[in-house]
Amino acid sequence: MKSKLKSILITGGLGFIGSNLINKIDKKKYNIIVLDKNNDQSKLSNNQFTFINSDIDQIEKYYDTIKDVFCVVHLASTSIPAKTNTDPVLDIQNEVIKNLIFFNFLSNKGIKNIIYPSSGGTIYGEIYNNSNSVDQNPKPISYYGAHKLLQEHYLRILERNRNLNPMILRISNPYGYNQSNYKIQGLIGTVIKTAINNNEIEIWGDGSIVRDYIYIDDLSDLIIQCISQNKSGIFNVGSGEGYSINQILKKIEKIHGTQLNVKYIKEIEFDVKSSVLNIRETINYFNWQPKISIDNGLEKLYSKIKHKEQ
After folding, report:
1. Which pTM value belongs to this model?
2. 6-173+214-238+275-291: what fold?
3. What's the burial of 179, exposed, middle or buried (CB within 10 Å: 0-12/13-18/19+)?
């Protein structure tokens, strides 16, 4: 007799992280349910999933569809750092409160396992001792980071009450194919696409800020491991290596073959100067290691974007 597949709910499944994740998940192992208020499925390589075209604040209506879900990968989000820091009250209303209600819904319905993508780049604030570790006390300097931390705390309270098993992933700066919100979020994709189209590249600040970048395939592999774990915890997810924006520009310029047209503009007030994640605990716990180097990742993404733009 054929065993029943385990069901997973992926909110925001048609977005950047969600679409890459769905394309990598073994469809023979899981029954996938996607909830997204967008309905453009062009980023997905197959249609082996149940689709709910809605938002998380309407989840009660679809309980019969998700009642057998054993794990939720909660990728749905309207928060963007620049927008949140400009209007934090709106983000509280549209993102934080909505998520807290969603967490309570899962808790009340007995859907205990949730994977929550937090922000490794903003939670900690300024870097401490060369890299940020999950053991240190987070001190965000932006509203975006503070709101992410608030939601982490709420999940931990629900964990303490034994109502949820949250796997909190403090993700650095993911990049890769299907990151379509160019000029809004995602430095690397924006620079590559702008360079290919021979347009001016705007950089906030002098290009000296340092970030930890992780290729989307490596992030997807780790999330798939998290789905199978059924455990809780907080983990940093990045490459463990830091590169300045200027270093990234030089690498992309080398791949592009001609000088980039770069314009430096006023820096963002809420940007930390350096953010690099300590990923040792994540490597040891999951026996996972980022496989794609920054140079390999940039080459892969450049090739894909160039093929699409031509």
Report:
1. 0.94
2. Rossmann fold (3.40.50)
3. buried
